[in-house]
Amino acid sequence: MQKSKFNVKLNDFIVKFSNNIVVKTVANGMMLTLPITIVGSLLMVVQMIPNLPEVIAQACTMGTTITSSFIAIYVLLGMSYSMAKELDSIVPASLIISIASFFLVTPVTNFDTGGDKPVAALEISYLGSKGIFVAMIVAILVTWSFAKLTEKKISFKMPESVPPFVSKTFEAIIPAAIIFIVTIIISLIFTKTSFGNVHDFIYSMLQTPLEALGNNIWSALFLMFLSELLWWFGIHGSNVTMSILTLLYAAPAYANMEAVTAGGKAQNIINLFFLDAYKGPRALALAVVLLLICRSEKFKSIGKVSIIPSIFGITEPMKFGIPQILNPVLFVPLTLAAPLCIGIAYVASIIGFLPVTSLTVSKNMPTFMTGFMAGGWQGVVVQLIQFVAVVLLYLPFMKRLDKQELALETPTPEAVNE
After folding, report:
1. Which one of 40, 222, 399, 404 is most buried, counting C-beta atoms within 10 A?
2. φ, ψ for residue 225 (rounded to 5)?
3. Residue 187 in contact with residue 104, Cβ under 8 Å?
4. How far apart are CA 87 and CA 280, in angstroms?
5. Rounded to whole angstroms, how far apart are CA atoms 41 and 129?
6. Is the peptide bond before 323 cis (omega within 30 degrees of 0)?
7. Are residues 115 and 188 in contact, defined by beta-carbon separation less than 8 angstroms?
């Protein structure tokens, strides 16, 4: 009974956390940046091909530069759009006001180009990985403030004869003006501080400490464990931990992409791209155990159904079919498989075998293809090692379950006589 009450309370807490508007905004907003980041990553892969014609190499460099050097803008737009939809606010106005506010807090630098006058321009570093946290904060605060101000009906009243689109445009004027004035005041205040601007303040006070935490292997292993622990309770763990992973590991990932695009070397081993690529072929490993090693009809049938989806990392047929959820026998392999895979990839990286991940790959790509895309042939080798390790981890536990299931399927002498 106590266990049931605990599960209910845990589930209620997780549901509230997952449905929190900020958590949903961060997770959904980052998802919206995937098309541009995946295209940029594919161009980076093409760029690595030896003896590539110069015009193609230049085109690839342009594509990856536009992806990595302006990632803060894409994050800003994605999160502002996501929150505006959640709040049922005016989406176009929310996007425009958010991006304008971001530029207000972004310093303009005078660059000496050798001419008569210096050129005033935005420094590109603030638009890339260094500006991600400011983009997140601006998108959330500005979009939320705009939605609340428009709800208060602080706007010009237009005649009913005015078309709805024009009317909505005028409704946004006063809320936009209030947000603009507040943003300008905040920006001016920071110019008088030792930081000089909002970006350097946020980078020093928030992004740098979070990146230090994100570069710690133990925090990554804990979050992998936590995600699968929630799955054991029947809660979609990835949905819960996605926003936390984004906060800790997105900036180091895009910093790696920027460095490689600029001709340098990726430095941050633990980053969002790394975690996505090297969680390991856990689904395929378990499906193979079910299909080739288990002898009971139940588990063999689940293996047959799961083998194709497992190639693409889909685990639900096995999580609910075996089931893994609330199964005390499978608690250890379920919760430790992902940390084990990340640990293997981390060791391979620190000894110099596995290249530091600097591009993103779709999590729904076939197993081993993700390893090849993220780390070349070395990535495939690492995923093969992970595959064997997960099979060995699950083997004794699944054999025990299979033995129990086989006993249930085998008719007793009494049943045969009847």
Report:
1. 40
2. -65, -45
3. yes
4. 37
5. 15
6. yes
7. no
For the chain, the structural domain boundaries read 2-32+69-214, 230-417
Closest C-alpha to 241, from 418, 3, 30:
30
The residue behind tokens 């600097």 is 358
| Rounded Cα gap, residues 368 and 258, in angstroms | 25
**Tens-place pLDDT, residues 80-138:** 999 999 999 989 889 999 999 999 999 888 777 666 777 778 888 888 888 888 999 99
Range 1-13 burial, b when 16+ CB lie within 10 A, else e: eeeeeeeeeeeee
* Strand-pair partners of 119: 111
Q: How far apart are CA 153 and CA 105, in angstroms?
A: 27
Alpha-carbon gap, residue 246 to 135, rounded angstroms: 13
**Contact at 8 Å (CB) between 306 and 321?**
yes
CA–CA gap between residue 28 and residue 22 (Å, rounded): 10
Cα-only R_g, the chain: 26
CA atoms within 13 A on the CB side of 343: 12
pTM: 0.74
Instruction: Look at residue 141 in the predicted model and tell me its pLDDT.
Output: 95
Q: Strand pairing partners for 121? A: 109
